Every structure is written in C-alpha cells, then in structure tokens.
C-alpha cells in the first residue's frame, strides 16, 4: 500500500482502487472534506476516512475506491470533522477498511512526520524525479534580502538556506515551482516560476545570485512581487496556492503594511522569515515594530517564522518546508474574486421600460465579469421582481463566466408593480438558502427605480441576519430612505443612487471594490 500525507486528495490517486496508509496525528481542523460516505475527489483521503470512521487519528490502512461524480455532496459533522457542501463534482471516492494482515510490517517504514514532502519512501513506487513532490503543489517566490542590512557574508548564508529549502520542497513539473526576487533599493526579479523545473537548475541559479546592496525596501519589493510575479505568462498555474516567502534581516526601511494588503487582494499567501530581529537598543531605528504582523497573510502565528541568526540554520529548513506544503493552511488563496456568491435582485416594474432594463442587465454583466466564476469559485444568481418574483438563475445553474453572461443577456423584462420587501424575503429563502453552509461569502445587490409597495426594512434586516451583505442601488424615483433601510452597515458605503439609468455604468468599480472590502474585513 502507498503511504500518503494528511493532504493527499482523492484526485491525487491514480488507480480505480488503491490501498493507502494514512499517517498519525493529522490536524483535524485542517481537513477539507466534501460529502458523506461518497466524497468529492477534492476531499482529503485521510480526512474522509476519519469522517467515515474507517480509521481514527492514529492513522492506518484505507481502501479507496474511485466513483463517478455526483450532483451534490452534503455537509455532515462526524468524528470531529465537519464536511462541507459541494454541488456537482466530476468524480468521487469511497473509503473502507482493509484487512490488517501485512500492515504492521509496512508501517515500520513509514515516516512519522505528516505534511512532509515525500522523499521516495513509498514502497514499490520510485518517486518520479521530474514530476517532483506532487503532494506539495505551490507556486513560491522567495523574496531574498539584498540590502546593506544583511551584508555580503550573510547574503551568502541566506543563499545556502534558500537552496536547502528549495531542494527539500521537491521541485518538479507537477510539484512546487519557485522563483526568486531580490529586495534592496529597487526590487529585481532574478528568475521566474517558469524558468526552472528541477532542483538542480534552481540551485545553480541561486548560487549565481549577486549581492545588490542598498536600503532594505522590502515593502516596495513585496508589492512589486505580488502584482507582477504571478502572471500566467510568467509561469503561475491556475488553482495552485501562490506564496511569497519574505526573508528579512533586521527590519524594513520602508512601509510594509500596504504591500501586505495588496498581496492579500491578489490572493497571495505572505510568509515572513525574520532573522536577527531588532534588539532593544535598535528599536529606536525601527519605523514600525509590528511590521511582521502587518505583512503576513494572517496574524495567527502560522505565517511568521523567526531564526536567531544566519549561522546554523539547517534545523530550520524542514519546519519551514512543512509550512509551505500545508495546502489547507493557505488562507489567503481565497480572495473576493474567487470566493463570493453575488445575487442580483432586479426591479422589473413598468416604470423601468425595456431600453432601461437592457442597461440594468449590462450593469449586472459588468459586475459579474470581474469575478472568477467556477464550480469551486465565485457564483452568480439573478432574481427579477414586480409583485411577483422570478428566479432567472440560481447559484448552481451556471458554473462558467460565459454561461452566466449569456444567461444574463437572455433575461426577459417582466413589467408590473413593485414589491421589493417580498422579493428580498424570496431571495434570502430560495436563492441563498441552498448555499448558506457553503464556503463563500454572500452578497445581495438590489436594483430598483421606485418606491416599494411593501415594507423593505424587516426583510432586509432578516437577510443581513442570515449573513448576507446588502448593497442597494437606486435609480430615478427610488427614495433614499428605502435604499438606506435596505443597505448593510456602514449604510453610506452600501447605498448608491443615480438620476438616470445611464449613470449605472460609473458605479461598477465602486460596487466591485465594496464587495472586496467587505470580503477582506470579514476575514480579518
């Protein structure tokens, strides 16, 4: 049987039925499991096995059977693991016990450490050298310190350390890819993710790095790397965590907080490895003592790493590699663009008129276009209302951007009265109800051009209580009091108004920015 890690997913296994060995002491709260009994192939195999009661947290043998995809996977809490809802996934698996005859023998050769990159200890399965460590898929930029702070001698020790980390990660075509950026006065991208796919080449490139010197403008370098380094043409891969590991000797010469915000907006996980932290007598020279906490992905201890000096750093290599390979911990890979559900509630009353209704649909399309829509990404829904409500499409009806945009284009104008309150209640119940336990954050954008015949305050408060953030967009005769009553707090930044339907276009960037701001605030 194959020894796997805590994070190996069903889709990482190649055979129809496979016997695997789960390690002991996997951290339960890190497991991503979708379904119950039949699990989406996105799920962690060992997580599913514990959830199913096939093994305990002491690990052990599991038989994994590949199954066809399902329309939906339920969320069930079992054995300390809360599985999550997922709609439609291409393949599934089930887990069962297997006979424990030859297990004891195999378990002896098993490594104790959990998210450790595989070093080829798999029985009868030589590690494919070119593919690299498939259990550690990540795109990593090492941001090395090339400032006068560190100096030439310690710069060389830093290169040694980065080289050791690179080798242990198990770089390869299907494993981690890495690149290096040097921070000094001005950032310099030394090599990109796409330039090398073997440890040997990367080691050579690291050895060749020349020390630049200058101020340690880490903030400037971090911002530059977050914005420019991870483009598809530079070799970043879709759906794989983006990570920047910042090495910092002492402290930065510039402000690093804004760069941290930019990195989070771009879905990049920032780690800071601080070496020789400022001593008491140096503190007077440090602009901002809390610089580490402000730049890392989350201030939860996981993303900061401290080494007392550059001498004798070998023992720090493995724990850092384990962090970088903990896929489930990369909390910043979720961004407002790929982790939200947005429903548009559209006024189809007679006062709108056909040509203005087209402008409303154009507005919705342009907001939706900004998001990464997919079965595991963001989702869009639309409801049209008069006195009645009509769900034009729900969150799970279309899972690609093209299909969503074409569904919006084909919405037909209803024409009738205006009962906005009823429509909000209808949407909360029927559109958001099915996704309320899902991982995405929920947003409702209400568009109306007039006074509602019913109460809007009660239904809007109920929607907000159900975890939905409400933006209200009013046109022409929509009363400002109603708009503010519907909007989430702070009301001013969630309420928009324009005299003419043509004014909707100018609001698009502000709505998108508002959604992203709320998303980031909810994560802090």
TrEMBL record:
Q: Where in the cell is it found?
A: Secreted
| SMART domains with a match to the protein in the record | LCCL (SM00603), VWA (SM00327)
**Keyword terms of this UniProt record:** Disulfide bond, Glycoprotein, Repeat, Secreted, Signal
Q: Tell me which residues make up the LCCL domain.
A: 1-93
Q: Does the keyword Repeat apply?
A: yes
Q: Name one GO biological process term.
A: sensory perception of sound
Q: Which SUPFAM superfamilies match?
A: LCCL domain, vWA-like
**What GO terms fall under cellular component here?**
extracellular region
Show where the VWFA domain sits: 139-324, 341-511
InterPro entries recorded: ECM_Assembly_Org, LCCL, LCCL_sf, VWF_A, vWFA_dom_sf
List the PROSITE patterns.
Answer: LCCL, VWFA
Q: Where is this region: Disordered?
A: 112-132
Repeat listed as a keyword:
yes
Matching PANTHER family, A to Z? COCHLIN, COLLAGEN ALPHA
Q: What does this protein do?
A: Plays a role in the control of cell shape and motility in the trabecular meshwork.
Name listed for the protein in its UniProt record: Cochlin
Species of provenance: Asarcornis scutulata
Q: State the encoding gene.
A: Coch
């Amino acid at each position: 049987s194959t020894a796997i890690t805590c994070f190996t997913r069903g889709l990482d296994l190649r055979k129809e039925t496979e016997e695997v060995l789960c390690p002991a002491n996997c951290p339960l709260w890190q497991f991503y499991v979708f379904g119950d009994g039949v699990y989406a192939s996105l799920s962690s195999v060992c997580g599913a096995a514990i959830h199913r009661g096939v093994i305990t947290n002491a690990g052990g043998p599991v038989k994994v059977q590949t199954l066809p995809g399902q329309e939906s996977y339920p969320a069930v809490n079992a054995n300390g693991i809360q599985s999550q809802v997922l709609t439609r996934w291409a393949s599934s698996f089930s887990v069962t016990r297997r006979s424990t005859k030859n297990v004891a023998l195999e378990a002896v050769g098993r490594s104790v450490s959990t998210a450790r990159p595989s070093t080829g200890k798999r029985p009868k399965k030589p590690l494919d050298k070119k593919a690299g460590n498939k259990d550690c898929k990540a795109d990593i930029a090492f941001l090395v310190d090339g400032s006068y702070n560190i100096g030439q001698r310690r710069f060389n020790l830093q290169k040694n350390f980065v080289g050791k980390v690179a080798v242990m990660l198990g770089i390869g075509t299907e494993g981690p890819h890495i690149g290096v950026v040097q921070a000094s006065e001005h950032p310099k991208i030394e090599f990109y993710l796409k330039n090398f796919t073997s440890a040997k080449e990367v080691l050579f490139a690291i050895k060749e790095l020349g020390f630049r010197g200058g101020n340690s403008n880490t903030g400037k370098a971090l911002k530059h790397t977050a914005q420019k380094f991870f483009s598809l043409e530079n070799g970043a891969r879709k759906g794989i965590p983006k990570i920047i590991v910042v090495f910092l000797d002492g402290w930065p010469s510039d402000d690093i907080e804004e760069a941290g915000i930019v990195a989070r907006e771009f879905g990049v996980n920032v780690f800071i490895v601080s070496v020789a932290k400022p001593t008491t007598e140096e503190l007077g020279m440090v602009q901002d003592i809390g610089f580490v906490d402000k730049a890392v992905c989350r201030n939860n201890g996981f993303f900061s790493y401290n080494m007392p000096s550059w001498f004798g750093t070998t023992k720090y290599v493995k724990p850092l590699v384990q962090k970088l390979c903990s896929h489930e911990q990369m909390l910043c890979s979720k961004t407002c663009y790929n982790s939200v559900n947005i429903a548009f509630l559209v006024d189809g009353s007679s006062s709108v008129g056909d040509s203005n209704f087209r402008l409303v649909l154009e507005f919705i399309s342009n907001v939706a276009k900004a998001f990464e829509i997919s079965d595991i990404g963001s989702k869009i829904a639309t409801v049209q209302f008069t006195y009645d409500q009509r769900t034009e499409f729900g969150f799970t009806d279309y899972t690609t951007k093209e299909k969503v945009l074409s569904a919006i284009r084909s919405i037909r104008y209803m024409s009738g009265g205006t009962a906005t309150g009823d429509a909000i209640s209808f949407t909360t119940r029927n559109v958001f109800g099915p996704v309320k336990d899902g991982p995405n954050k929920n947003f409702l954008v209400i568009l109306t051009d007039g006074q509602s015949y019913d109460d809007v305050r009660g239904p809007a408060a109920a929607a907000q209580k159900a975890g939905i953030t409400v933006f209200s967009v009013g046109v022409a005769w929509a009363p400002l009091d109603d708009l503010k009553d519907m909007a989430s707090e702070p009301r001013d930044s969630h309420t928009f108004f324009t005299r003419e339907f043509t004014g909707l276009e100018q609001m698009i960037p502000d709505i998108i920015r508002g959604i992203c701001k709320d998303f980031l605030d909810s994560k802090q």
